[in-house]
Write a structure and sequence with these properties.
Blueprint lengths: L5 E9 L5 E5 L2 E6 L6 E9 L3 E11 L25 H18 L5 H7 E5 L10 E8 L5 E6 L6 E3 L9 H16 L13 E8 L6 E7 L7 H8 L5 E8 L13 E5 L3 E5 L2 E5 L9 H15 L6 E5 L5 H7 L4 E6 L2 H13 L5 E5 L2 H22 L6 H4 L7 E4 L8 H10 L3 E6 L2 H13 L2 E9 L9 E8 L4
Helix pairs in contact: 1-11, 3-4, 5-6, 8-10
The structure holds S-adenosyl-L-homocysteine.
GO molecular function, one term: rRNA (uridine-C5-)-methyltransferase activity
GO biological process, one term: rRNA base methylation
Enzyme class: transferase
Length: about 475
């Protein structure tokens, strides 16, 4: 195959990025936007020795899994990769991805996977689920302000105020801001020149409370006529917080370091299950609250707490899982690298009256091993003193955990952390993962060191995209 060759192929597989994969005489072609089951005409755009990339030119015979995308920009936009695939098929794809990684990377036997894997948790209505959106602003050829999303792999803005994954109220907010910019000639920021004012708007919506937050990210210290803008925005029912974040740096980072309140308060409130969270413009918060509740309920089920347990929640963010588990545990310890997230975690514990959760700032792979080593040394001292009548209570205080929960970023857990988990030997490990490949790698290590994989379940946190979240339960199969 060579560049610019045309070919007709059957799409027989799905790649990690959601692209279709087909073969011609043993030569593999990756075709963006093609759906598994399509028969399509494609044009080669890049040819390597054994494989190449092709553009979808025409669907000759559509796949039974092909559907009309709800968003007319689905193909150009970088946000959704698989909107043209039926939702049922998306779920099968995600489940197979987890299964495939467990087999290939984790080395788990297919029979074992059959036994431990539970059906993926999908959404009833897989659209309009995101509680957070960050829209960039730009200027079109006629000089009008526009907002929307970046086209895949570029910073070209596709003008669209009606994203199918976002809360419906986003459109009203965006149109209000655009109208204000047109009326007062307020320029959008231009990445190339570093000039212009309005860079981004962050919108957050509390599905359980209907509270709305709007945060304007600006390249300057003030917004001219800002009162008029806030007057227009507060007409939207649910408006709770309007803030401004100054970001004058020429970077891809969206938010500034701080924010100031323009109207209302600096945060909105939302519930996951019984737990109430205060979310500010700079807080991390799960973007799909409906699925998050299902995921955390599974974490609770997998942890199977009876009441007195000591639980560690590593990579705890703003303490979402920690607070969820604290409802049933004796004591929870959370560890997180971002100090502001720990401030939020402590505040969220307080507003929910949770007193059995304690939080540490630091790297999980440093905090836990240090804690363990220190406690081991203390424990050794205490053993020596045992004959000398030390209070029995203190003797029990070695580095102990009944359950360890980890929810690492995509790169997975550090080897030093896995080593400490094995040394601490909790009865159960609950692993929440946003990347099945690193999950499989880490599970392999835990299972080579005395743990057994008991339950695995994928949860679809991000319908229409290729991302998949997985939760697993492992139990210790050695006695202490
Ligand atoms: N469990 C949380 C957040 C999970 S996202 C929730 O469900 O909301 C992963 C978190 O790990 C992020 O908050 C990130 O800041 C944090 N993180 C990344 N590397 C880390 C490390 N080495 N040690 C501790 N936390 C880390």
């Amino acid at each position: 195959m060579q560049k610019n060759d045309m070919a007709v192929i059957e799409i027989t597989d799905i790649g990690v990025g959601g692209e279709g994969i087909g073969k011609i005489d043993g030569y593999t072609l990756f075709v963006k936007d093609a759906v598994i089951g399509d028969r399509a005409e494609v044009k080669v755009i890049k040819a390597k020795k054994n494989y190449g990339y092709a553009r979808l030119m025409k669907v000759i015979e559509p796949s039974p899994y092909r559907v009309e995308p709800r968003c007319r920009f689905a193909r150009q936009c970088g946000g959704c990769q698989i909107q043209a695939m039926s939702y049922d098929r998306q779920l099968v794809f995600k489940e197979q991805k987890v299964r495939g990684d467990l087999e290939r990377i984790g080395g788990f036997a297919p029979e074992l996977i059959d036994r431990v894997m539970e059906p993926i948790v999908g959404m009833e209505d897989p659209f309009g689920y995101r509680n957070k959106a960050q829209f960039p602003f730009g200027t079109d050829k006629e000089g009008n302000p526009v907002t929307g999303f970046y086209a895949g792999r570029t910073h070209d803005i596709i003008a669209n105020t009606d994203c199918a994954l976002g809360a419906p109220v986003n459109q009203d907010i965006l149109e209000t801001i655009l109208a204000f910019m047109r009326k007062y000639n307020i320029p959008a920021y231009d990445e190339k020149t570093g000039k212009g004012l309005i860079r981004h708007v962050l919108i957050r919506y509390g599905f359980t409370t209907n509270e709305i937050m709007v945060c304007l990210v600006v390249n300057g210290n003030t917004i001219p006529h800002v009162r008029e803008l806030t007057d227009d925005l507060v007409r939207i029912p649910g408006m709770t917080s309007i803030t401004m974040s100054v970001n004058t740096k020429r970077t891809n980072v969206i938010m500034g370091d701080m924010y100031e309140v323009l109207w209302g308060q600096g945060y909105i409130t939302d519930y996951i299950g019984e737990i109430r969270y205060q979310i500010s413009p700079l807080s991390f918060y799960q973007v799909n609250p409906a699925q998050t509740e299902k995921l955390y309920s599974l974490a609770l089920e997998y942890a199977d707490l009876k009441g007195g347990e000591t639980v560690w929640d590593l990579y705890c963010g703003i303490g979402t899982i920690s607070l969820f588990l604290a409802q049933k545990a004796g004591q929870v310890y959370g560890v997180e690298i971002v100090p502001q997230a720990i401030d939020d975690a402590r505040k969220n514990a307080r507003i929910n009256g949770i007193e059995n959760a304690e939080f540490f700032v630091g790297k999980a792979e440093e905090v836990l091993p240090e804690y363990y080593e220190r406690r081991q040394m203390d424990g050794a001292d205490r053993n020596e003193q045992k004959q000398m009548d030390v209070e029995p209570d203190r003797l029990k205080r070695t580095a102990h955990a009944d359950v360890i929960v980890v929810d690492p970023p995509r790169k997975g857990c550090d080897a030093a952390l896995l080593e400490t988990i094995v040394k601490m030997a909790p009865e159960k490990v609950v692993y929440v993962s946003c990347d099945p490949a690193t999950l499989a790698r880490d599970l392999k290590i835990l299972c080579e060191n005395g743990y057994e994989l008991k339950r695995v379940r994928a949860v679809d946190q991000f319908p229409m995209t290729v991302h998949v979240e997985t939760i697993c339960k492992l139990t210790r199969n050695f006695t202490l």
